[in-house]
Amino acid sequence: MQTDLVCPSCEDLAMGGQTHPICKKRFGLDGLWSLGIYQDPLRSAIQKLKYKGITELADILIDITLEYWVKYQPFVLDQIKKDQGVDWVVVPVPLYWWRVNSRGFNQSSLIGQSLSKKLGLDYSEALKRTRYTKSQVKLKEKDRRKNIFDAFAISPDYTLHPKPYVLLIDDVWTTGSTLRECCYVLKKNGAKKVWALTLAR
Ligand SMILES: [Zn+2]
């Protein structure tokens, strides 16, 4: 299941998943951590969580992620610990309310809550969707960016100010357009660092 970590900008290998210095953008992601490649058995576990509602899988997959980090990527946990004074906050990529209602839950929220509990970090649904967007699954990369543009905002009852470091959670990294767009909104609103964390890519 283990995978090498890549830079969220150019997607070439990157030490610890950190964005290469030359790939850094002002409102861009600082890094990307993924548990594995989107293939079985990880793919079927994510699909069971998402579409069959086997929500216990969120906890199980986060346990595996943490075990894996301790063993192969201690750098990841060190980063979070080192900056503990700054307070990392776990923020899930939101679903549009209509999709939450039809599915009954947001898989990214479940993953984020599990991670925050296990690492003792704060959890916040700081982002909201401002409009409905088509599923990204069948879209080409260019259309994905267009589809997701301006689709997120900071939730009105949340201020980012005291929590400038964000672990942004989604189930799968495909082209990264959703996570990049969410990061842009978070950084525009005061986040100092944003790392994307996904189960698969
Ligand atoms: Zn890069």
TrEMBL record:
What the entry lists under SUPFAM superfamilies is as follows:
PRTase-like
Give the matching InterPro entries.
ComF/GntX_DNA_util-trans, PRTase-like, PRTase_dom
List, alphabetically, the CDD domains matched: PRTases_typeI (cd06223)
Q: Which Gene3D superfamilies match?
A: 3.40.50.2020
Q: Which PANTHER family match?
A: DNA UTILIZATION PROTEIN YHGH
To which protein family does this belong? Answer: Belongs to the ComF/GntX family.
Name by which UniProt lists this protein: Phosphoribosyltransferase domain-containing protein
Species this chain originates from: Candidatus Daviesbacteria bacterium RIFCSPLOWO2_01_FULL_39_12
Q: Upper taxonomic classification of the species?
A: Bacteria, Candidatus Daviesiibacteriota
